[in-house]
Amino acid sequence: GWFVGSDGLKGVQPGATAREAYQQALGLPAYWESLETYGHLLEEVGFTEIQLRDRSAWFREAVQQDNARIFGPLKSTLIDLVGADHYTAWTQTRQAMAQAVAAGELTTGHFRGRKPVDRELP
Fold first, then answer.
1. Given this model, what pLDDT does residue 31 score?
2. Which parts of the chain are beta strand (E)?
3. Helices marked H in 1-117 — which ranges?
4. Closest C-alpha to 59, from 15, 26, 10
5. Distance CA 109, CA 58 (A)
6. What percent of the chain has pLDDT over 90?
7. In whole numbers, what is the pLDDT of the chain averaged over residues?
8. What pTM, to 2 d.p., does this model score?
9. Of 5, 56, 66, 79, which is the most exposed, with the fewest CB atoms less than 10 Å away?
10. What is the three-class DSSP state of 114?
């Protein structure tokens, strides 16, 4: 069968200070790997026909566009919906994410592979 996925990934830039700041702002554990590592891991467990798609350029643009709306025309609506304190905390996390993306330390990608069936199915 086919396995298809998409995930947040560590970028190809050395170091990770901006990504670490983003992870700290999130307040959640995260175990970042690169797109290439995903490809190697899929191969190690027997997947074939592996395809990797780097979505860095799209992700960088999407984050910039989202933040332009969040800090611009949507700001007052968001504050009305969630309150100023929550908006401030959330936008600090968004800024940390944008910095990690801009530094090339955080990206996203798509990956897929086929796991051959080693027996006939009923």
1. 83
2. 2-10, 48-54, 106-114
3. 17-26, 35-44, 56-71, 75-82, 84-102
4. 10
5. 10
6. 77
7. 92
8. 0.82
9. 5
10. strand
pLDDT (tens digit per residue) in 35-75: 999 999 999 999 999 999 999 999 999 999 999 999 999 99
Q: Beta partners for 5? A: 111
Instruction: Specify the length of the chain in residues.
Output: 122
> What phi and psi, each to the nearest 5 degrees, are found at residue 28?
-130, 150
Among candidates 104, 111, 9, which has minimal Cα distance to 57? 104
Phi-psi region of 89 (alpha: psi -120 to 50; beta: other; left: phi over 0): alpha
Instruction: Enumerate the domain spans of the chain.
Output: 2-114
Going 48 to 5 to 35 to 61, the CA torsion angle's sign is positive
- Type of residue found at 34: S
- 69 conformational bin, left if phi > 0, alpha if psi -120 to 50, beta if neither: alpha
The residue among 122 and 89 whose pLDDT is bigger is 89
How many helices and strands, by DSSP H and E, does the chain display?
Answer: 5, 3
What tokens does 64 get? Answer: 């910039």
